[in-house]
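Entry: GAF domain-containing protein
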Amino acid sequence: MDTTSENDAFEAGDGYTRRLREALGSRLSLLSVFVGDRQILLGADGLPEQLQGVREIPLVAGFCKHVKDTGAQLIVDDVRDETGIATHPLVVELGIEAYAGWHVTDESGRPVAVLCAMDDHPRAWSSGELLTLMELAHDCGSIVRGFAARAERGSAV
């Protein structure tokens, strides 16, 4: 395993989530790579202290799974309006009330990750914020694709 490139990928992922969180002024941002039935947090910024070391979570019903399953971005101004998602344990635990996520695809167009911002209050995401999200999701694509390919071969995480 090339631990240097894996460490570099996590450092880059954290950088993208930090940039997204700062640009949007959101409480939390994640870069989740889909590997089987789990999500590897290639980047995370704004997690509560008790979750800061977490790099893997199950891929269960919720925002990121929706992006993976549909291959489309998901923008939710008020989570309380979304049946099924509002009561998701992670949403409740983190106090998430708004979500904006953009997919990252592999060369064939299959979603392999999502870059997302979340907030602890309802908010209308502006077109400028969504453009920033889309651009950063595009920019992190090569790092994500390389990491996802290694993870699928079992040589990452």
